[in-house]
Amino acid sequence: MSERSEGWRARIARLLEGYDRMLRLGHEAEIRRELEERDDLVMLLLFGEAMGLPNPVSYYTLELYPALIEAYHDWHQRMGMERSPLDHIRCC
Amino acid sequence: MNAVWLAVATLALYLFGWLWYSRYLAERLYGLDPRFTTPAHRYRDGIDFVPTNKWVLWGHHFTSVAGAAPIVGPAIAMYWGWGPALAWVGLGTVFAAGVHDFGALVLSVRHRGQSVGTMADRIIGRRAKLLFLFIILILILMVNAVFAWVIAKLFISNPAAVLPVALQIPMALWMGRRILRRGGSLLVPSLVALAVMYGTAVLTSRLEWLQIDLVGWLGGEGASTALLGLEATPASFLIWIVVLLGYVYIASTLPVWKLLQPRDYINAQQLLVGLGILYAGLFLLQPAVTAPIYNTEATTPWFPLLFITIACGAISGFHALVASGTSSKQLDREPDARTVGYLGALGEGALALITIIAVATLFAGPGEFLESYSSFAAAGNAGLGNFVEGASQLAGGVGIPPDIAATIVALIIVCFAATTLDSAVRLLRYIIGELGTEYGVHPLARRHVGTSLAIGLTALLVLVPDGGKGLGSGGYLLWPLFGTSNQLLAGITLMLLSLWLYRKGRNPLPTLVPMLFLLTMTIWAMTQQVVFEWSGLGAAEAEWLLFAFGAAILGFALWILLEAVRLFRRRDELEALRDPADEAPELEGGYRE
């Protein structure tokens, strides 16, 4: 009996999740775009040298590199740079 | 006659369309291939190009295309009786809208997820791009003017709906911020938002002091006011239009995730809940059809005006913009296009169907019907109000008191119309900017210049036409213009589809026949309106603004027809425009069944 009710519960949960996904499909894309734009701005501030902008606090941002290395690859590709423009970051 | 039979017969026709006709389109006409790599896989970027489950995408597509328009058109077209309206909604949905929406989706999928505008530019050339931009410009202007008119009218006739509508704005802003910061499900917050709005609607329906009744505040209907010497109703109309356009100016210049998208999220739930309640009410209440099947007293002939009075709900060119703009980029497998496109069109048809039934079952008898629909002008003024009353009567079937149901129905329509208004002004700004860039008038591309121009043009269109009862009573005159420009857009998509099928050596008749039908009706109806109604040559006085827009639309319709004839005669030109992506079903890394 309890197995059957759990099955129903899972089915209803799946249905509600599908319903929620259906409603937020358009919204999600816009949120992702907005978040990506904000991330791009942060990356530009942190990795300004890649674009030829002097970075006065590179000593401090250096510490952030390991944490941002994965995002860095996507970012430089989005910025239209096929390969990593920085010598000391060889992500690809 | 029991109204359930109308629903059963039309839904049976939809079922036939879904089971048989759409299968024929999928297999024989569009040749859907499960091995074809859809743009969602080919250009997957996690934002626009995302493979999505077909039922999730169907729900999103349907809630994006259905709004206030499939309610307003049929409610006005009931003037000719329920027979012509039902026949056009039933047959149009199955043989025109389904073919068009489904086809636009497939065409875009086969052309790298490009929009109809880009495909028109590619297939026909720069002329087509400009033609397309101008038609959309006119369509959107009409959408703005008509929906601003609809909202102002509903605010005047249902003052209890104003407060709950206003409450949607801060709640949508809060939801937008919440999802940006925390992500996750919005189901519970949006249900809370709905509960707050509907709870407020219950209160405002019963407590008069919570109603924003401008007409009453200005002294009641017929009272003269200090505002430009207008009577209370036209003065209230003017105030609401100014307030609305002010709101739309601000809303349309905000990022979409802040207000527009969360509003859409709430509205999509309102649409599904509303449709569910109305159909449940119909089957539980089983009301009798009291309106005549054909209004023999109608002085304005139904042919060809019916086909431009009901656009959304029978066929709407706007759907191609959604299908080719967003849905085509999210289609997981090509065969899913049948569910998303065709079933999406049937969903909107179901909304138009319940509108016809709500109005057809409202009256005590044919006499009351004739009183409300005494002329086409009267139908334009009363149609929407009749739907609100008829729908609240149907909602009574599930136990909702009629006064509260009327407020909620008005609230739902206003929410749909306001969201459309927001996105339409935004689109209008982009188009004005694009035309400005095209013709070297660069200031037009600036956000506030474009928005001011869009708002100014909308205000002009909604305030100038005079229906004889003063300011705001002429809005119904714009409705056929909206329908016509919407049909023209559908005509362009159907032309592109026919050319594509013709080039592939398939039978273009299922798309060509609706295209020729639409263009003929459009040209016929516009000639009638422009020459005999708005030019001043007939019995009516000249309406120069409507004349100018009508003449431009007529010119565009003829232009499309000539382009179609030219391209069908020059097959070699079509061959040169073959898109390689269309011919390669299996691409590396793509979906395989």
UniProtKB/TrEMBL annotation, chain B:
This is Carbon starvation protein A. It holds the Pfam family CstA. PANTHER family: INNER MEMBRANE PEPTIDE TRANSPORTER, PEPTIDE TRANSPORTER CSTA. It comes from the Bacteria. Its main location: membrane. It is found in: Cell membrane. The chain crosses the membrane at residues 6-26, 62-82, 88-109, 130-150, 156-174, 186-204, 237-259, 271-289, 301-322, 342-364, 404-428, 449-465, 477-500, 512-532, 544-562. It is a multi-pass membrane protein. Residues 2-364, 380-525 form the CstA N-terminal domain. Belongs to the peptide transporter carbon starvation (CstA) (TC 2.A.114) family. Keywords: Cell membrane, Membrane, Transmembrane, Transmembrane helix.
